[in-house]
Structures are given as structure tokens and as C-alpha cells.
């Protein structure tokens, strides 16, 4: 009996060290807490000498998840906007997908930003500061896409780090579960997804995808980094210019037109607007709080709030 006991003890010690190193690994890699927990449970069960096989449950749990990076291009001073969007995206949860929403801007320009943005990063870690002067229509989109391969090239990440990368506006509301559902059947290579411009067109090869939010597969971000085509020509309306790169580089053989699941807010009506309706992925041009609230209310966005005696919202 004795040797068995000491075997058990050293096994428990081994488990302990593995857990500690996993914790360190997890904090570095954002490995999923679930996997960690599942693994610790494996160790617990192994306390029972007959059930060591549960170790096999340590694996790439969620390895089949779609990984999506949503980059919201915004400006350093938009603190309240970021606060609001963190709420809007933070309360949506999606099965079968790992979605990172990050705010993208160029170099900070003011003294107070160095403190305020640093605080946000410490608390939320959802900001990417690109190496560029803040600009509109002068290549911020190019800097964003072409920086991604190096920003996410850590060897301990899976490859590709994200299957898809989206560029979105800060006045766009994305319904993440519907968004992910729409992506599931689509190819993970050479994909260019969005709301095709011109507004009346339903042909995804017509011109280009609207800046409200377009998505490409990771190979296109790599192509943008490597190719001369975007570098030759990046000034001008960024979504249009992006579409021109796709055409000139013969990229985006796979296209998906999200219209009319993606549209502009119904008011004021134009050829790009649509009534709010259940089959919605994205609503764009939410330029003020009234429009945001009308949209969130329409989708019963707060209906899943837990009841409690601590508050009462009629
Ligand atoms: C230990 O193993 C026995 C036999 O396989 C099983 O019946 C029992 O439920 C296990 N106990 C724990 C705590 O896992
Ligand atoms: C593990 O085993 C020890 C004795 O070997 C026992 O006291 C303890 O309750 C067990 N823990 C679990 C979780 O089964
Ligand atoms: C942005 O800031 C970094 C360091 O803070 C600096 O090295 C770089 O030259 C700046 N880039 C631009 C385009 O201003
Ligand atoms: C990632 O890219 C950076 C910048 O190009 C480079 O310095 C670094 O060596 C790369 N790391 C890996 C693991 O490829
Ligand atoms: C919101 O909830 C109402 C009442 O339950 C329901 O009739 C409506 O269909 C829901 N709207 C959406 C977009 O799901």
C-alpha cells in the first residue's frame, strides 16, 4: 500500500505544478478558462487512482470555433463611444465562435490620452494603436490590415490567429449571433463579405463593400501586407479603395453580400436603408443615442437581463 500512496502524492504534486504552469500559460495566451477548468477536474478525478484516463480531456477544446477579429476604427478621444460599444458587444455571447472586438486608432497625440488610454488598456486590453498619424482617407485601413500578420504572429497562437477580420464603423451595430450564423457556411479563404455598394445592387462583384463593416479572410490580410497593389494607391474613400485592391489583385473570389441583413438605419430613408427587421446582422448610421436605443429596443436587446430584488426596471 505504501508505494501506492507515495505514487499518489507525487502524482498530486505533479498535477499541482501542471496547473500552476497552465495558469501562467493561460494568462499569457488567453487560453480558455474552460479548458483549464476541465483539466483541473481531470486532476481531481485522478485522485481516484482508477480514473487517470480523464487526462485525455485536456485538448483543444473549442478548436473548431470560428475565430473573428472585429476592428472598430475610431479615434483616441472617443472614450464614451468605446464605453458604450463595450457594453453592446460585451453582453452578446455566441456559441461556436471566439470573437475579439478591438478598437483601432493611430498614434496618440495629446498628453491626457497617454493616461486615459493606458487605463483603458489596463482594464480592457481591447485597443490596438497602430503606427500612423491619425487620418481619414489617408491609409488607416491599409495600416490596419497590413499590420495584422505581424501583430498576431506569436508562435503559440493557432494559425491563422483569426479566420476572419472585419473592419467596422463605430456607428454600426452588429448582432454577433446572426453574424456568426451567416459566416458558418462560408469559405475561410479568399472571402470578401459585406454590404455591396451601390445600394441598389445585389451583385457582390459589382463594386465594393460598404465601410459600415466588411470582412475578409485572413489570407487577404496577409496579401495586403505583402502586395504592392495597396501601397501604390491608398488615398481616398477607404472602403472604395479597398474594393479596388480586391479587383486589381483578383482577390475575393468568394463574396457574400449581406444585404438586406445589413443596412442603414431606416431614417432618413434612402436607397441604402431598410426597416428594422428580425433577420438583421448589422444596422449602420446609428449616429445618435435615439437611434441606438430604438434599434436595441427593437431587438429586445436587454430582455435577458436577470431579475433581482436589487433593481426594478419597468
Ligand atoms: C473512483 O473510481 C470508482 C471506480 O471506477 C468510481 O466508482 C468512483 O465514482 C470514483 N470516484 C471519484 C471521486 O471519481
Ligand atoms: C483524494 O484522496 C484523499 C486520500 O487519498 C482523500 O482524503 C480526498 O478526499 C480525495 N479527494 C477527492 C476529491 O476525491
Ligand atoms: C508613432 O509613435 C511611435 C512611438 O510612440 C513613433 O516611433 C512613431 O514614429 C510614430 N509614428 C508616426 C507615424 O507618427
Ligand atoms: C512577428 O513579427 C515581428 C515584426 O515583423 C517580428 O519582429 C517577429 O520576429 C515576428 N515573430 C514571429 C514569431 O514570427
Ligand atoms: C421582441 O419581443 C416581442 C415581445 O416578446 C416579440 O413580439 C418580438 O418579435 C421580439 N422582436 C424580435 C426582433 O425578436
TrEMBL record:
It holds the Pfam family Galactosyl_T. Its EC number is 2.4.1.-. Gene3D superfamilies: 3.90.550.50. Pathway: Protein modification; protein glycosylation. Its cofactor is Mn(2+). Transmembrane segments: none annotated. One of its GO terms (molecular function) is hexosyltransferase activity. It is found in: Golgi apparatus membrane. It is a single-pass type II membrane protein. Keywords: Glycosyltransferase, Golgi apparatus, Manganese, Membrane, Signal-anchor, Transferase, Transmembrane, Transmembrane helix. InterPro entries: Glyco_trans_31 (IPR002659). One of its GO terms (cellular component) is Golgi membrane. PANTHER family: BETA-1,3-GALACTOSYLTRANSFERASE PVG3, BETA-1,3-N-ACETYLGLUCOSAMINYLTRANSFERASE. Belongs to the glycosyltransferase 31 family. This is Hexosyltransferase.
Amino acid at each position: 500500500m505504501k508505494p501506492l500512496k507515495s505514487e499518489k502524492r507525487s502524482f498530486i504534486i505533479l498535477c499541482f505544478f501542471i496547473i500552476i504552469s497552465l495558469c501562467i500559460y493561460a494568462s499569457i495566451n488567453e487560453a480558455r478558462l474552460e479548458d483549464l477548468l476541465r483539466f483541473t477536474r481531470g486532476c481531481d478525478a485522478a485522485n481516484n487512482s482508477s480514473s487517470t484516463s480523464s487526462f485525455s480531456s485536456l485538448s483543444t477544446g473549442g478548436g473548431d470555433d470560428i475565430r473573428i477579429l472585429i476592428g472598430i476604427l475610431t479615434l483616441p478621444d472617443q472614450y464614451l463611444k468605446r464605453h458604450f460599444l463595450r457594453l453592446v458587444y460585451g453582453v452578446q455571447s455566441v456559441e461556436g465562435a471566439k470573437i475579439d472586438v478591438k478598437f483601432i486608432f493611430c498614434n496618440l497625440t495629446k498628453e491626457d490620452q497617454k493616461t486615459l488610454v493606458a487605463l483603458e488598456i489596463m482594464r480592457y486590453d481591447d485597443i490596438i494603436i497602430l503606427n500612423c498619424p491619425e487620418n481619414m482617407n489617408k491609409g488607416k485601413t491599409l495600416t490596419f490590415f497590413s499590420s495584422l500578420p505581424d501583430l498576431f504572429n506569436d508562435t503559440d497562437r493557432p494559425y491563422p490567429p483569426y479566420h476572419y477580420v472585419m473592419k467596422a464603423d463605430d456607428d454600426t451595430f452588429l448582432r454577433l449571433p446572426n453574424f456568426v450564423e451567416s459566416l458558418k457556411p462560408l469559405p475561410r479563404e479568399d472571402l470578401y463579405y459585406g454590404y455591396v455598394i451601390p445600394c441598389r445592387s445585389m451583385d457582390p462583384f459589382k463594386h465594393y463593400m460598404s465601410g459600415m463593416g466588411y470582412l475578409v479572410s485572413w489570407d487577404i490580410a496577409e496579401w495586403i501586407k505583402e502586395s504592392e497593389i495597396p501601397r501604390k494607391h491608398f488615398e481616398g474613400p477607404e472602403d472604395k479603395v479597398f474594393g479596388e485592391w480586391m479587383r486589381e489583385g483578383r482577390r475575393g473570389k468568394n463574396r457574400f453580400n449581406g444585404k438586406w441583413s445589413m443596412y442603414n438605419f431606416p431614417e432618413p430613408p434612402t436607397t441604402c436603408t431598410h426597416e428594422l427587421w428580425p433577420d438583421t446582422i448589422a444596422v449602420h448610421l446609428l449616429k445618435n443615442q435615439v437611434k441606438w436605443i430604438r434599434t436595441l429596443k427593437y431587438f429586445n436587446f436587454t430582455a435577458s437581463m436577470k431579475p433581482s430584488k436589487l433593481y426594478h426596471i419597468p
